[in-house]
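Example record

One chain of 320 residues, shown exactly as stored in the release files.
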Amino acid sequence: MKLFIKKCLLFAIILLIIPYPADYIITGGLKKTGDIRGTGYTEYSTWNAIISSSIQADLIINGSSRAYRHINPFTLDSILKCQSYNLGGTGGDLNKQYVRYMTYEKYNKKPKIIIHQIDYYTFSISDSIFDERFSPYLFDIDKDLIKSHLKWLKSYHLHLPLVRYFSQAEQIYTGIVEFFHIKHFKDVRKKGFFETERTWNDFVLRRILHGDSLIAQKQPEAIELFDMYLNHCVNNGIQIIFVFTPQYYQATEFTKNKDDVMNIFRSFSEKYKIPLLDYSTDSICYNTDYFYNANHLNKKGAEKFSIQLALDINILQFNK
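Predicted structure tokens for this chain:
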């Protein structure tokens, strides 16, 4: 009986001791990494820049993958004579964009200008699917933000060690090899921007056209959150600019309810005196040379668009 109790105690001690250093090692390693897959998706480099207070930009770009793949901060810096950084992240879920930006403010100075990339999926929120890209930063993000806007996170993710990496073999491996300097995953983003050196592939377009239609999103909770975000920025003296970046024209034509969504953006534009730059019908949208799929510009397209965007913003003279 005593032997059994000793074995149980030993097992309990192992369960208590091992997870804490393992969690520390994995998290520490991921906070040194750039990009696991070399595609810009994992975003650790952007998060690491945020929590290290190393950005300190005058102009911030916020939004989805159409932000970090379409808007080159180096081009904006050159034309607008400012310091900019791209916080865009894969996926259009507004709650994740909001948490990322508010965490940016926690660790960095407030920007003078925010370019918020908008599209037909801005007004969407994800409440159910665990996003492993947040895992290393759960203790860096304010708990009220997590509780209110990352509802797929459970209390045990925040209180029990190692649980946040459950079923994340890729992240566990990366964190360990980075921590012990066995392998380094380089940062493929530059100031948060990712150049996509790919040519046109019509797979996404064919998939879109094969369905009935694309449905523009307008979740009431997302619209309410967007209003709160804009109100926060305006009250803090931050100038917002709405930018609908180019997408291939057939994807736009095939989207239902697009006018409803654009009208919501126009109402926010009027309410908060926010300029709205809409490039959804720009000439670039009709040329596949500038796209790698129906929704995203390639390197050539992003450079052409970024120049045009910077020149249009310069006319607004917010940076004067």
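Notes: The two ends are 80 Å apart (CA to CA).
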